[in-house]
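Hi all, posting the design record for the shared folder.

TITLE: backbone redesign
STEP: 1 of 1
STRUCTURE INPUT:
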């Protein structure tokens, strides 16, 4: 009897997780960047970086909220944002950042973007 109740509870929690994934999943993005970094001997290396982010909407503008270290030092044209529906975007303007908290907001401009709900 106890095991049966625990299994039912586990299944309820599993259904909540599935619902959250369905709701939030379309707002999650994959970010790829290429950066040129200098070496000590004067040469330059092309560095590839990858990370994740989430689309948010502030007022009427969309941004991808991600880690600063993922996009730091990359030219805007070398930042590729892969949406859940297969589209690829590049930033539509300068990246806003807070290095102390390793947070960046990458402005994006596209139709039919799913934005995560954020709290206040």
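Okay, here is what came back for every position:
SEQUENCE:
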């Amino acid at each position: 009897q106890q095991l049966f109740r625990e299994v039912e509870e586990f299944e309820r929690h599993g259904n909540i997780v599935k619902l959250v994934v369905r709701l939030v999943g379309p707002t999650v993005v994959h970010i790829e960047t290429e950066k040129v970094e200098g070496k000590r001997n004067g040469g330059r290396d092309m560095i590839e970086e990858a990370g994740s982010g989430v689309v948010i909407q502030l007022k009427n503008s969309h941004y991808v909220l991600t880690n600063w270290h993922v996009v730091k030092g990359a030219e805007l044209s070398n930042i590729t944002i892969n949406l859940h529906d297969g589209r690829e975007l590049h930033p539509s303007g300068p990246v806003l950042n807070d290095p102390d908290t390793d947070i960046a907001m990458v402005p994006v401009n596209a139709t039919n973007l799913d934005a995560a709900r954020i709290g206040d």
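COMMENT: The mean pLDDT is 91.
Let me know if anyone wants the other runs.
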